[in-house]
Amino acid sequence: MVYQNYIGGKWVDGAGGHTFASINPANEEVVGDVAQAEVADVDAAVEAAARAYVSWRLTPAPRRGEILYRVGQLLKDRKEALSQLLTREMGKVIDEARGDVQEAIDMAFFMAGEGRRLLGYTAPVELPNKFGMAVREPIGVCAIITPWNFPVAVPSWKIFPALIAGNTVVYKPSPETPLLGIEFVRVFQEAGLPAGVLNVITAPGVAVSQALVRHLKVRAISFTGSTKTGTAIAADAGKYNKRVSLEMGGKNAITVLDDANFDLAVEAILWSAFGTTGQRCTACSRLIVQKGIAPALKEALVERTRRLRLGDGLLPTTDVGPLINRAARDRVHEYVGIGKAEGARVLVGGKIYGEGGKGFYYEPTLFDGVAPPMRVSQEEIFGPVLSIIEVGSLEEAVSVNNDSAYGLSSSIFTENVNAAFTAMRDLATGIVYVNHGTTGAEIQFPFGGVRGTGNGHREAGQAGLEVFTEWKAIYVDYSGRLQRAQIDTDKLVNGPA
Ligand code: UN1
Known about the structure:
By secondary structure, this protein is α/β, with parallel strands linked by helices. The protein folds into two domains: 2-248 and 454-473, Aldehyde Dehydrogenase, Chain A, domain 1; 252-434, Aldehyde Dehydrogenase, Chain A, domain 2 (3-Layer(aba) Sandwich). It has helices at 39-56, 61-77, 79-90, 94-114, 153-164, 178-190, 207-214, 227-239, 262-274, 294-306, 326-342, 375-378, 394-402, 417-426, 488-494; strands at residues 2-3, 5-7, 10-12, 19-23, 30-35, 121-122, 130-138, 141-145, 168-172, 198-200, 218-224, 243-247, 252-256, 284-290, 345-348, 352-353, 361-362, 365-368, 385-391, 406-407, 409-413, 431-434, 450-451, 469-477. The termini are far apart.
C-alpha cells in the first residue's frame, strides 16, 4: 500500500508516479511507501486550497470550531494507534509519542474554542455617532512546513489556528515522517472538513517546498525546522511580501545554583537533555552550574546517564530511542569530536551505540570543562549531548545563558525567591522555567524564541492566531454628515470657532 497525497479532497499519487520510503530509525525497516509530490502537485494543492477558501472563509467560525472539536475527539480515539505509528516512524519512546499526540488533542480543543472567541475589540471613537471596531480576518492560502521531531504536535500548532481563523492550508510534513503527516490529515477528512480546506503533499528535497513557498497564491508560510532552511524561506517569501513565521534552532540551558533542590535538578536535567534523544527544539544542551554544587551534580549525572538504556522506543525497557537517521547520528559524533578537539572532556558516552547493527543510536554524552565560546557551547547539536559550564554566580549564569545566537527556552533551579525573580527577568529567552527543565511547554501559552530562534512570531495560545489573521479596522459613521477625524474633533472640544 502506498500512502497518497491529499489534494482537493482526493487521495492521489504524485504527478510523476514516484514514491519514497519512510524508515524506522530504530531498526531501519520500511514503515511505508509514500507518494512523492512534484511541482505540478504543488500547483494542484494550492489551487484546491484557493478554491476552498471562497466558502471556508465565510463558514461561521463556531461551525469551523465544531469540525475541529470532532478532530480532537477522533485524535483521542486514535491516540494509541497514532502513538505507535509515531514511535515506529520517528523513534521517540512510546510514552513521549503519546505526549506528542496529546499535545495535538489539547490544541484541537483549545482552537475549537477559539471558534467562539477569535476576539477582536471595539474602542471609543473621537467623533459623535460613529462606531469603531477591529476584527480578525483570515489571510488566504497558508503553507505549513514542519519537522519530524514532533510530527503530530508541531503541525497541530499551525493547522488548527490557521483553519479556525478561516484560512485554507497546504501542509508539507517532513519527508522523515510523511506517514504521520498523512494520517493526521486523514483525521480531518473523517471529521468532515470540506474538500480542499486542508491538503497534504509529501516529498523529499527542496524543490517542492520551494515551489510551495514561492507560489503566488500562498499568502502566509509557517515553518519549523533548521535555521538554514528557515532563513532561505524568509528570503524567498520576502520578495513577495508574504507573511512568514519561523521557529528554528535552540541552545537551551539549565542553570543550577548552589541552593537548588539537588534530586529534582538531576531528574530534570536528564529528562531535558536526553528525553526525545535530545531532539527537541527545547532540549537542554548546556548545563550552567554554580561551583559549590558542581562536583556532586556531575557525579550524580554521570552515574544516572550511564544507566540510561538505549533501544527501540516501543520496548518498555527503553529510556532513550534512536536519532532520526544515520546523518543525524554521524553529525552528533562529529560534534563530540569537535568538543574534544576544543578541550572539553567526555565524562560519559561519546560513542556510537551498536555500531554495525541496525538503528541510529548514540550514547548519551556529558561534556565537562566547557567554555562558553566553544562550538559545543554555541551550536545546536540536536542530539543527546550535554555541555557542562561552571560559573561563580547568578549574574555569570545569566550572562552565559544569554550569550547565544538562539533564545528559545531556559531554566533555573534555586530555592531562593529573589534569585528566581531575577532570573525570570533577565534570562533572555521566549520561555523560562523555574524549578523545571527546558522542555514541556503547554499549548495555551505562546511558544517561540528570541534572537536566531525565530522571527518574532509565537505559536500556540491566542498568540498563535496572529500569524494566521489579518487585522481589519472598521469605522461606521451614522451621523449622516461628513465628520473629519483629527480635524473636526478639535471643534468639539473647543466649541465652534
Ligand atoms: C519542539 O521541539 O519543536 O515544550 C517542540 C516541549 C514540547 C514541544 C517541543 N511541548 O518540549
